[in-house]
Amino acid sequence: MKVTFQIQGSAPVEIECNAGDNLLELARRANVAIDAPCSGNGSCGKCRVQLLSGELESVPSRHITPEEYEAGWRLSCNCKVAGDCTVLVPDIASAYQSRMKTADLSSPEEVAIFQETQEQLKESGIAFANPFLSLELTMAEPSLEDTMPDNERLTRAIREQLEVETVEIPYCVMEKLASTLRRERFHVRVKGEKQGNTFRCMEITGAQDSVIAGCAIDIGTTTVTMVLVDLTSGKILAKGSSGNGQIRYGADVINRIIQQAKPGGRKSLQDAIIKETLTPIIANLCRSAGISARSILRLSVGANTTMNHLFVGVDAEPVRMEPYIPSFFSWEGLKAGDLKLPANPLAPVIIAPNIGSYVGGDITAGTLATGLWDSDEMSLFIDLGTNGEIVFGNRDFMMSCACSAGPAFEGGDISCGMRATDGAIEACVLDKDTMEPTLTIVGDPEQKPVGICGSGIIDIISELFRCGVINAKGLFVREGSRVRRDEHGMGRFVLAAPEESETGREISINEVDIDNFIRAKGAIFSAIHTLLEAVDMDSSMIDRVYVAGGIGSGINMKNSVNIGMLPDVELEKFRYIGNSSLSGAYAMVMSDAAVEKCTQLATNMTYLELSTHPGYMDNFVAACFLPHTDARLFPNSRQEV
Amino acid sequence: MKVTFQIQGSAPVEIECNAGDNLLELARRANVAIDAPCSGNGSCGKCRVQLLSGELESVPSRHITPEEYEAGWRLSCNCKVAGDCTVLVPDIASAYQSRMKTADLSSPEEVAIFQETQEQLKESGIAFANPFLSLELTMAEPSLEDTMPDNERLTRAIREQLEVETVEIPYCVMEKLASTLRRERFHVRVKGEKQGNTFRCMEITGAQDSVIAGCAIDIGTTTVTMVLVDLTSGKILAKGSSGNGQIRYGADVINRIIQQAKPGGRKSLQDAIIKETLTPIIANLCRSAGISARSILRLSVGANTTMNHLFVGVDAEPVRMEPYIPSFFSWEGLKAGDLKLPANPLAPVIIAPNIGSYVGGDITAGTLATGLWDSDEMSLFIDLGTNGEIVFGNRDFMMSCACSAGPAFEGGDISCGMRATDGAIEACVLDKDTMEPTLTIVGDPEQKPVGICGSGIIDIISELFRCGVINAKGLFVREGSRVRRDEHGMGRFVLAAPEESETGREISINEVDIDNFIRAKGAIFSAIHTLLEAVDMDSSMIDRVYVAGGIGSGINMKNSVNIGMLPDVELEKFRYIGNSSLSGAYAMVMSDAAVEKCTQLATNMTYLELSTHPGYMDNFVAACFLPHTDARLFPNSRQEV
User: Fold this and answer.
1) pLDDT at B92
2) ipTM for the whole complex
3) CA of A315 vs chain B CAs: smallest distance (Å)
4) Which residues on chain A are in Cβ contact (under 8 Å) with B329?
5) Distance (Å, whole) CA A542 – CA B320
């Protein structure tokens, strides 16, 4: 049998299969990206496809209405092939790339935050110096009087400019040395690295091609962001981001670890990040900066422990299995050529070190970026993503922990949830009396809403709570035209009726959604609370709160405190620092001192494993209320009714 | 149009083409090996194919008789495609592999010579020691009490056995570290290199897989020979040889340099040696030794300057163009992975250094093997191949030069010439009175002759001269039943009448053949003579003559002196040393001291460029007689009539 995937914005893909094959699995085999945050267990309802012709056998789902079913909509994870068929796949890849409100330096405000971070690192004494050089060389042409062979001639010319004993010429330079020298009439540029008494050539080009570049990459579970930088000046040459192509293997790290452990899985997950995600972005950045990929002489990566393992292609199973010891914390020795990244094959790939199974290089790089290690102030650093990671400390000590927040912040586990792309409700204010919502939508100002993203959910729940529409358990306690109940009595709040929405489907938030979200925010707050308890401290001792992460840029701090997600400290203590993993990675690609500092931070940071920590579960249960069972922790949270 | 090549012993190969395409070029495009020593200019007559069906447009050739033409035989370089056709291609690859009498350690005598050479190197103070180690490691499994990640655990275990500060774990080990440790229950073997305070891991396997191997390779213009050795014990694990797959691009280095300069040529020539020639031999040797290619931790190559350039894939054009300065003499930094050789990707590939455009690493490696650098005796070292290279000197000085002997020693440029495979006449004695020849044939004792190989030609010419059948100019001066003349009066000597030969074709040697050969031997002797003159010496001062090379093993020293090819010194001064390039490469793969010594030899050896040297041309002209125009140089050469 044959299944044809019609992909919005791309060429169709056909695959041969057998009756009974699972449609989502088939899509994975055919390299067709279908959004499946729950990795195919039917719970998230995101893997919707539309049957255009032919037959699929499927079980009913609460995520598909009878009208939608009639129109051919199915959850691909629920479908078995019953005959030749053609299905329409919503184009998630370009949706990611449309206008994600991730911290990808797309707004001037974010660029300013990014640059301020780097300036502060310099003030903290981090020298922005690296060993990479671009040398312009002019040599005499060989003659019967000057019979030096090409490689010795090159070595001599380099030694005239640099005080080095040894010049290493690797294969990738040697194989084009003779032809480049002659084509360029012995006036060339050599790019490479000076380490002590040795200069290592990495590239030879014409003399006019002078740029040497670095590439700083943040690999998030959901989103990948990177900047291409000039290694000499530090200038940002280009920037870009896209969804992590591994998303079709599951939204969270656990599902991806399970997938990579299947036969061929490690290769598939590695291909999804390297070939499908990073390679096209880097190629784009090089094109827009007008440089050759061979001029990228160093890369740095900020990523969580699992992402690091999948990126490197190392078995990630030990990350999730007791005794939770990853294959590596810190590892030097990776080259771009090992992973076939589009960069100089000899370019070192610096991986910001992991410190535990669930506190990875994104957090050590992020901690570097916060500068909290250089201050007497007690700082809390929270990276909000699919996983929430917390660091607390100052120049004298640092503690860290991680919790699984689940996909709620990215709109997963929420019936009308979506990522922060065009049409997402990103902010909301309710009229206390009429309960009429005022919505802010991502994208075109005339855009009708499509769904709700993470920052919108925080606002909506905070506003429903403030206006007394829901109680501390998240149950509806007021009635009104926008409060509806289904046949089982489950309440929901309608943000947009079918005629008000872009898709013609009602956009609402129900008690199950609210409960899911409360558990996500409860995980975050209880992690913070447990970490503070572990060092015998409490919220009042916090001098500063750094909030980072993909969700961060749209987040309303006051509302986040109001629902008991962030600790109740003065609002001026909060500082949004954008994509701190990318900021740290940038510092590391530019600066050897930053690499050294980050390694040192990782060595000095204590990791608290919450899953085995006594008290965490109690704290979690207590945090699963609005704002908390212990209202004294949130004196500023209030219901205005 | 379509051409089908039927290849003896292989599957047929089809290729689409246009009318008028040259058949030899098509064969090259289709990767079909056709022997073409003259690279397709119609002069050698070796690229014979048989038209089985269809049409080919061809011009007559002196190399094809009317009867043969009738039977479909054509020179492929002379044919244009005129329609769909099928041609039969004689299987030269397996002919090479059948029973070449090259110095490939196939006889016990050659193995003895090889081992004696190594023993003498040890006596000369070359320590046979290398930095490669195979470590058996047993580690504790990770637990909640011992939470070290895999890479640090491995480092700790290595440090328990070796006093090193740094353990480098490269990607090829890292990517399988987690899975290997767990599959082998933390009882593994690590293979790698200890340099000073650093141990570089290169491979991780199960504990039982203990062998670490090296591979020593002689890349000749015509033949490739190699041995797989145990890096710990020095034992030869396997050995093999085959024809150099580049042969279809021309028999000599000049034709191959011209070919590699064409678009895509460098890649084709490199593929021909690496993918088509070396890869299958190494894979075979690994199979027969029962080791994995990843266990090959170092390779060494003895090859002439052009072969070295083509092997590395570096433009060889500078080798043949004034000012004759190759792209490199000596180059460190090549890894097996750069060339995708079937070996550990990190294995260093040691290239014995070149010292000039026409004195390459085969000669520096060979000089190392002779041991002449450790003696007071004045030694002459002659490597007889497609090029002849000469070294003269002792522990105080060394001079070298090279001459182009052409393909005559391998049977090229000789009408009934062939390589030393089954059926070749390799030795000959004439009855002075009857002129009846007694032939020695390669292969089965009952084998009828097929053609004449290099050592056979030396014997035949020497015997014809001794018996007064030919004069000093190589012209026939006696008549007899075996001496025939064609319609132009050109004499020839019939060694086998059609009914006495395997192919039904007469096997003879004619005045053109003899003239070609005299020019080849003249080139060798005049090179020796010029080199001696350049240091103000003569033959009488030679204490020893080392003869090496592919032709070497069948060579009759007395006859070689008799025709004026080798200098007239006492026969006991001659020593046949087999494949000295391979002997030197073996020493280098086993011993860092040998690598150092070879580099030092190359630095200290003076290169005499004969093509621009005054006097060489006169010496060459004078040497184009039997034995020489100056008979005083050959007091022991005589005609017995």
Assistant:
1) 54
2) 0.81
3) 6
4) 149, 152
5) 76
pLDDT for A93 equals 43
Whether B149 sits inside 8 A of A335 (CB atoms) is no
CB contact under 8 A, B178 and A334: no
Burial B521-532 (b: 16+ CB within 10 A, else e): bbbbbbbbbbbb
- Helix, strand, or coil (residue A202): strand
What's the pLDDT tens digit per position in A85-105? 999 987 654 444 333 444 467
Determine contact, residues A195/B358, Cβ cutoff 8 Å. Answer: no
Residues of chain A with Cβ-Cβ distance to B171 below 8 Å are 312, 333-335, 338-339
User: What's the CA gap between B377 and B380, in Å, rounded?
Assistant: 10
CA pair distance A435, B196, nearest whole angstrom: 75
CA distance linking residue B40 with residue B22, whole number of Å: 10
Under an 8 Å CB criterion, which residues of A touch B?
A: 142-144, 147-152, 168-172, 174-175, 177-179, 182, 312-315, 317-318, 322-323, 325-329, 331, 333-335, 338-339
B42: how many CB neighbours lie within 10 A of its CB? 14
Q: pLDDT tens across B612-631, in order?
A: 888 999 999 999 999 999 98
Buried b (16+ CB within 10 A) or exposed e, B621-639: ebbbbbbbeeeebbeebee
Least CB–CB distance from A170: residue in B150, B313, B333? B333
Distance CA A531, CA A393 (A): 10
Contacts of A315 in chain B (CB under 8 A): 178-179, 182
User: What pLDDT was estimated at residue B94?
Assistant: 43
Residue A332: DSSP 8-state: -
**CA angle (B226 as vertex; B221, B227 as ends), nearest 5:** 165
Residue B177: count of CB within 10 angstroms of its CB? 24
Distance from C-alpha of A162 to C-alpha of A155, rounded to nearest angstrom: 10
- Which whole-number Å values give the CA distances from B551 to B361, B388, B462, in the listed order? 19, 11, 16
Pick the range with the lowest mean pLDDT from A334-343, A379-388, B550-559: B550-559
The answer on pLDDT for B101 being more than 60 is no
**DSSP 8-state class, residue B357:** S
Contact A507, A414 (CB under 8 A): no
Split at pLDDT 50, 70, 90, the class of A9 is low
Instruction: Report the C-alpha gap between A165 and A168 in whole angstroms.
Output: 10
CA of residue A291 relative to chain centroid, distance? 26
Whether A147 sits inside 8 A of B325 (CB atoms) is yes
Measured on CA atoms in the order B149, B155, B161, B164, is the torsion positive or negative? negative
Strand intervals (E) in A312-397: 349-351, 379-384, 387-393
Choose the most confident range, by mean pLDDT, from A3-7, A101-105, B110-114, B273-277: B273-277
Q: What is the pLDDT of residue A103?
A: 45
Spatial distance between the Cα atoms of B224 and B217, rounded to a whole number of angstroms: 7
b/e A278-314 (16+ beta carbons within 10 angstroms → b) = bbebbeebbeebebbbbbbbbbbbbbbbbbbbbbbbb
| Residue B336: closest C-alpha in chain A | A171
Q: How far apart are the first and last CA of chain B?
A: 62
pLDDT of residue B100: 42
Cα–Cα distance measured from residue B157 to residue B177, given in angstroms and rounded to the nearest whole number: 14
pTM of the predicted model as reported, rounded to 2 decimal places: 0.81
Mean pLDDT for all residues in chain A: 90
How many CA atoms lie less than 13 Å away from A343 in the CB half-sphere? 29
SS (H, E, C) B92-140: HHHHHHHHCCCCCCCCHHHHHHHHHHHHHHHHCCCCCCCCEEEEEEECC
**Do B325 and A169 count as a contact with CB atoms less than 8 A apart?**
no
Distance (Å, rounded) from C-alpha A127 to C-alpha A133? 17
Which residue among A182, A315, A323 sits closest to B143, beta carbon to beta carbon? A323
pLDDT of amino acid A92: 54
